[in-house]
Amino acid sequence: MFSELKATHITSGSVDDPATLRALADLYPYPPTSSSPPGTGTPWFRVNFVSSIDGAVTRNGKSGDLAGPGDRAVFRVLRALADVVVVGARTALTEGYRQPQPDDVFVAARRRDGQAPAPTLALVSRSLGIPTDYSPLAHPDTVIFTCEAAPADRRRALTDAGATVVSCGEDTVDPELLIRECGERGWGRVLCEGGPSLFGSALAAGVVDELCHTTSPMLVAGGAGRIANGPALASQRSMRPVTVVADDDGFVFTRWVREPAR
Ligand SMILES: NC(=O)c1ccc[n+]([C@@H]2O[C@H](COP(=O)([O-])OP(=O)(O)OC[C@H]3O[C@@H](n4cnc5c(N)ncnc54)[C@H](OP(=O)(O)O)[C@@H]3O)[C@@H](O)[C@H]2O)c1
């Protein structure tokens, strides 16, 4: 009944080493079907979070204070594998998100796999309160996923500022429609970096294929929320652990896929 899942060890001193990063990437493969041509196949919806041992999703209001070198390496690798980084507007603004840049270690592999040099940034927002001078909006590939109920004046302001604003639902962004939109744009490898509200919506919609989770080796107590926020699910989602990695600093990286697969 019991079996030990052995952790693969990475040393924190080597997290910038290309060989270590490529070895990490080998532990986080997307399924082959996710590279289907645009409009065919269902994108793979991967989510990435870090939390403390006691379940806090932030420390001092940010996830960065829970991170370490190994976690930053996993974050980097997951981005290097993705076609699109989907993130809630609040997280993008709170965490000071910038346009994802090409990663020298992975540029050749991405070219070989027919991917753009760097993933696209896709922001999710109902209020469209994103400032028009928010720098990633200047990038031609950046997309804002919103809904019909979004304020028309904000939609106009962001569109006039050059942003691509796409409706995926009526009153709120429907994760199913968001994923369909990703598929039509040829983004089969989706990486959702949260935050907890967006993850809660995705769980409620039943679209989460995979959770990559870092346990930060600290106890922080306090009032920080959990990685998923929103109404309790009517029935639980079962997930199967497929990867366990540890680093010298005590961080534990797990990868869970849905059971059964979608
Ligand atoms: N530990 C980690 O790994 C991690 C990861 C990510 C974030 N965080 C932390 O989480 C905190 C933010 O939490 P949060 O729950 O507010 O984050 P969030 O999910 O990024 O942001 C919520 C906002 O995203 C938009 N949104 C999310 N789901 C939506 C939907 N279905 N339809 C339309 N809009 C939707 C809305 O934007 P509008 O308000 O613009 O309508 C909503 O207010 C920050 O402190 C951040 O640092 C931690």
TrEMBL record:
This is Pyrimidine reductase family protein. Pathway: Cofactor biosynthesis; riboflavin biosynthesis. Signal peptide: none annotated. Residues 43-252 form the Bacterial bifunctional deaminase-reductase C-terminal domain. SUPFAM superfamilies: Dihydrofolate reductase-like (SSF53597). Keywords: NADP, Oxidoreductase. InterPro entries: DHFR-like_dom_sf, RibDG_C, Riboflavin_Biosynth_HTPR. It comes from the Bacteria.
